[in-house]
Amino acid sequence: MTTITVSPKFQVVIPKEIRKKLNLKPGQKLQVIQLGDRIEYIILKDIKDARGFLKDMNTDVDREGDRY
After folding, report:
1. How far, in Å, are 17, 26, 30, 54 from residue 9 at the CA level?
2. By C-alpha distance, which of 16, 21, 19 is closest to 30?
3. What is the pLDDT along the chain (68 residues), one digit of tens a residue?
4. Extended strands (E) in 1-68
5. What is the model's pTM?
């Protein structure tokens, strides 16, 4: 577990190993959420990056006989 310090300006630095694993880039936006006594950061991605992510999804669905 890595420990970080809050600066006098209330800034934190995301450790290099985590930035590399998450492929974070300068200027990238993160959403901050407080959950009880925790702070969570969620990477905001452009909707264009989601294009095609379901292309290999199996769309075969068993339907009941009276439904079409």
Report:
1. 23, 19, 18, 42
2. 19
3. 889 999 999 999 999 999 999 999 999 999 999 999 999 999 998 888 888 888 888 888 887 777 65
4. 30-35, 38-43
5. 0.62
Which residues, 6 or more positions from 28, have their beta carbon under 8 angstroms from its beta carbon? 43, 44
DSSP for 17-35 reads HHHHHHT--TT--EEEEEE
Helix or strand or coil: residue 48? helix
Which tokens in the block code for residue 36? 């009880």
* Token couple for 68: 């079409």
Domain ranges across the chain: 16-49
Q: Which pair of tokens denotes residue 18? A: 């985590």
Distances (CA, A) of 15 to 1, 41, 49: 11, 13, 25
